[in-house]
Amino acid sequence: MKFILDGLTVYFPYEFIYPEQYRYMLELKRALDAHGHCLLEMPTGTGKTITLLSLITSYQLAHPEVGKLVYCTRTVPEMEKVLAELQELMEYRNKYLGPNPPPIMALGLSSRKNLCIHPQVAEEGSRESVDAGCRRLTASWVREAALKSPDIDTCSFFDAHEKAGQEALLPPGVYTLHDLRVFGRKQGWCPYFLARHMMSFANVVVYNYQYMIDPKVSQMVSRELEKECVVVFDEAHNIDNVCIEALSVSLRQQTLNAARRNITKLEGEVRKAQAANRARLDEEYRRLVGNLVEAQQLRGGEEWLANPALPEDIVRESMPGNIRRAEHFIGFLRRFVAHLYERMRTPAVVAEGPASFLGGVQAAVAVDAKTLRFCYDRLSSLMKTLEITNTDDFGAIQMVADFGTLLGTYSRGFAVIIEPYDERLPHIPDPVLQLSCLDASLAMRPVFSRFQSVVITSGTLSPLNLYPRILDFHPVSIASLNMTLTRDCLCPVVLTRGTDQVSVSTRYEQRLDEGNLRNYGRLVVELATAVPDGLVVFFVSYSYMDYVIARWHEDGILADLMEHKLIFIETQDVMETTLALDNFRRACDAGRGAVFFSVARGKVAEGIDFDRHYGRAVVMIGVPYQYTLSRVLRARLDYLRETFQIKESDYLAFDAIRQAAQCVGRVIRSKADYGLMVFADRRYQRHDKRDKLPKWITSNLKEAHMNLSTDMLMVVTREFMRSMAQPVDRAAAGKGLLSQEAVNAIWEQQRQQAKQAGLGGGSVAMEGMVENRRCRDVLFLLLFVAYWVGMFIVCGIAFQSGDPNRLIYAIDSRGMLCGSVNTYENTTIDLTDKPNLYYLNALDLLKVSNLMYAKTICVSSCPTVQELCSIGQLPCTSNDQYMCPYYRFAEDNLYGKLSSVNSTAAVNYWDQLPTAQLDSCDGSFLQAAQSTAGLDLSALGVNVSMCDVAAGSSIGGKYLQAQSQFPGKGPCYPVWASTVPYFNRCFPKFPENFTSSVYSMMDTTSGVLQSATGTLKNAFSATGPQFSQHVADISKGVLIIVIGGLACGVLLSLFWMLVLRYFAGFMVWATIAVVNAGLVGCTLFAYNTAGMLTQAGQWGAAISAQLPPMSDPTGMTRENWSYIAYALTAVAALVFLLTLVMLSRVKVAIACIKVASQAVSTMPSIMLFPLLPFILEVGLIIYWVAVTAVLYSAGTPTDHWRPATQDLQPLSLKELMLTNSSQPAPPATLKPDTTNMTRTEVMDLCANSPDCYISYDWDNRLMYAFIYHLFGLLWTNQFIVGFCSVVVAGAVANYYWARGDSRNQPTFPVLKAMRNTVIFHLGSIALGAFIIAVIQFIRLVLEYVDKKTCNLQQQNKIAQWLMCIVKCLMWCLEKIVAFINRNAFILVAVKGGNYCSSAARAVQLIVANALRLAAVNVVGDALLFLGKLGVAACCGVVAFAISNLEYYNNQDKYPATYLSSGIMPIAVAVLAGYIVAQIFFSVYEMAIDTVLLSFCEDCESNNGHPKCAPPLLLEALGEKAPVEAGQDAHHPQKPQRHR
Ligand code: SF4
């Protein structure tokens, strides 16, 4: 089939594809697109190989810039299988590609042993013999000699191939090893050298792991491979061990003996050469002296194994002088081998590092590490010089040379271990000296760094996260794919108990237990009775298998077993095992059935399949842990722990479980197959073991099958075998497959989704950013909408109950509304011409607590300076200088007594007072007023004797005029201060001399009064004119604010973001350095001042001399300074430690800031986005205030009496002056008994009392309406904030998940984010906002309770503290929830999930990345705060510069713009700049948070290795930055040879 996968045309040679194959291809393509490595697990039997080949060859076809596919396999049969599948694929593909398909060259490369066609050489037994045989025929000196002497044999195939030269080419096609041999025979060319030659032209090369990993081979074979190659390691579950083996050398005593013989032989050859052809040796010496440093030249033109060290570690220097001469080198080798021999004779195990071992070598052999490094190259050169062709005879000395070279090259990652005997057989001396590589990543590092994409794949790679750690690489794609099955053909079970119900295990204490072994034996026998055909049993080791089988034999278990099946056993001898396997298969084929006993980690476990009837059940007896007492293993475990922080137990369990999985996987090789997998050890029941099994096993492991005894197992087995014996439902099997149409439909769907999402070019939606969204938390959205319906109802109630006029006009102290017609006891009091509220007694305003009780009336206009009754002018005699209560409510029962006053609302009737008839008057008052206050009563026509009624004189209403001189007494009140109207209220403008005048009159007044007077005087008289001046300045300096504040704010904010993008790193590091240095400086300063520095020795005195001299402080001061010094030391140390801990995270923080800058700069429109929430917020506030105001105006008039505890009554100047006392004592109870009074009477009483005021108060209904309305404000406000967060996060996340490539972003990212938010996420926002609003509401309630219980708290300290703690806790809670909310909104924007799951995930990420988040928040906040301050300060500077222009300072020339002071415009400009910066940076802040959380999510989802992070972030982590396909700059011109 031919189908489209993520935009790539894939040729797949079958009609259907498994879903897991499709997913595998997707993951693989993602890695190829990203030019990164990947780690993919997919079980055997799912067509992994053909999937790989199809995808990669199709990718090569679509992307000609991609290099070769280098497919590494473990064995030759696997290689042949890959090539056979490739052949099939190419035949199929060519059908689609027409008559002239693009040529493909694919070949397998193997050793000479597998490719040689020379009749004699090919017959040689071992690989080394064939190599040596070939070398005997093809060495340059042999061929040179053959030219002179025809008797000397050469290889005709080699000669013919060499003669053909560059023309010796294979025609395009796919060549297996067999095909190569056939072609070689046909052409007469050597297939081995032909394959090597054709590698440069091949599109696909299949060879063994060693050709890629082992430096000795890879430097010869794979040196020419280009960087753009895709390297695949198939069945790579043991790749770490392969890497370690490639760099390890083991020397036994036999090896050293053979090496000694080799040295003697070499010595003889040297002597012979010296005698026969000394020129050759001299030539070699000259070559070595002549600084011919290149290893290639040293190795000469002949092919031999290469240097065992990794390419980058090979020294490119001249050969050390002490081994240049052949005889010197031989002497060195002899001493070296002798030393090794000596070291090997140790009686105890020795384990040491290479450096330590090298020290011993240097002392004994007198050569340094550098000389040792040349060991291999020197030997190679000497053997070529001596023209030695039988290299297989010199294998031992080569191993010693390898040992020396590796020892001299590596000081880390290796261990030298000498074991005098095998610990399991301590009585048999078998010394071995091992230079063991401990770090698998050493061999893999060159591969990962050299090739663009490396694919590590196998059926058993779990746990996946360990491979990137032990191999030290960062895959861009990690996936474990399950096998889709149409029937339960996999039946993994865990056997924990035997037939006697006792647990079974191979743990050390139990492994040899009689009962345990018997249980295992019975298990195998029982299984043999129920399982047809082949049964495979794996043991944990050869020794254990031998022991168990011997015991079973003794116990008759084997005999029982033999009754049912034949028994075959794997041995360490390959031939024996092969024979056993053949016979096993034969027994199965014949229907006799057989059991095969094998060993985990053995040859059978790795490479032999027991498919179909050869393996219907497999038993893994025990957990195949490595031999943990092995010195090599212990050294490796130590290294893994120290270097990669991998715990011993983790690694051992991982290694054991992968081996077990490998063993049980032997029985399933296709989906048509079936098999029972028995994990026979109770330890498999534990999570730490089970979780490490591959997903394709665990997903089939049923809960009921995790703890079985043998009896239960047999029931399960019989049931399983019975069900598997049923005919397969072919139709059902087909349902799980994807046809070409189905696959193309998937692509089409993705394309449509991408299109809808605004992704250009038909690319699929980016990973991580969920595109296919659903409406979430709809219930809360409906609730929110319903709430707003309620809000509108509240609005209706407010307008129905309230009177908007009460907002415009004030209510006087009688509860009447100014500017309106009021009714009082059926009397209409028309105040329509009196819109302003006036305070009758100015002295009431001198105390804030009195304001509420101040008596007020409505007046037509506020009295101004013309009507002023100055204190110095008393008594005032003009009617205009007085204001009186409404005539209807006139004091002293005057209503109806002043005949000329008609209107009930009249307030100017002072001059009418004399017409009133009085019954009595207070002569002593008049006396006091005249004598004490110095009032000239005669001006009013009043004298004291007029009060003497008894004498017949009558003062009449004039007494009232005299009494009105004193504010607070009435019945009329002098206008002591001019007033100005603000919002229909007359505010007094106290004159400059007001207080002095008052003081002069009231020398007996209290301090309280004085201070109150002063405060009010300052408030009203001093700031008033300045205020109006400042307002005028602001209106004139609008241009300064616009240019200096707004424009500058925008530009500087943008500039700051640019600075952050490029210099964030420098700024952060500089700040950290300055803080640390500053703390150290301060600490030293403190020590110096305390005199402790000079006592600290020479260094202290030296530092002290550098510090500025201090005056000698007193003893006490010294002590204080010493405490300060200690405290500073602790702080400096703490900060320093914190700096160290946070170093790596600061890098991430800086990268986040930079990425956020990039993201914002790629979508400038996001900067304008805050305008929308700003408009919404303003609209909300206007609406809320309007409704609240109308609501406020609703209610019924209520009397409020002064609390008895409040000791201030309104001030009566008369009383103050005349009684010469500060204030009268308050009565015990101010509120009179109003029980039997009517409402009007109570109102009257209140209106006349100086201790009562009337206001319109809410009833419960209005109160609840307000509370509802208030919560609505909080909720809606948070909703708008949440909306803004989700939109910004959505837009920025697009950038992140597009790997920082703006080309992969939607065309309009902000609009798309807004669309997503509006359609899908308003419900989640409503829920998040609701939670915050509830907390805020509780905080407001607490504040209210706090205010109400203020007095109570003052009496009870515990209550005060409790209140404080609760308020603090609520504050913290709000901050925490707001933080979680913010992050939850980011995840909502990224993942499209509901609020709860997003918040839970956010918390998880926050906890897992606490330090990272802390670093980013601290660093980000600090930088942004600096930015805001910087922007505001610069705006101030610009505004200042503008305000200094002549335009604003020349009053004559520019009177309209002349500023009395530039302060206010500059201040407003600074404020505007700060606000602009705040708006810009709020987006920026959200962008940083989004980048960070996306990064954390990316890391968490991909085992700590982010897949989609933009390059900057990857660089901060030291990871490889993925490059998107199609970036030509990253694709240098390809070498054409491979085509
Ligand atoms: S050159 Fe080729 S054919 Fe000849 S001996 Fe060597 S490997 Fe065999």
From TrEMBL:
It is a multi-pass membrane protein. It is an enzyme of class 5 (isomerase). SMART domains: DEXDc2, HELICc2. The chain crosses the membrane at residues 778-799, 1037-1059, 1066-1087, 1123-1146, 1167-1192, 1266-1297, 1318-1338, 1422-1442, 1462-1484. Pfam families: Choline_transpo (PF04515), DEAD_2 (PF06733), HBB (PF06777), Helicase_C_2 (PF13307). Belongs to the helicase family. RAD3/XPD subfamily. This is DNA 5'-3' helicase. It comes from Tetradesmus obliquus. The lineage of its organism: Eukaryota, Viridiplantae, Chlorophyta, core chlorophytes, Chlorophyceae.
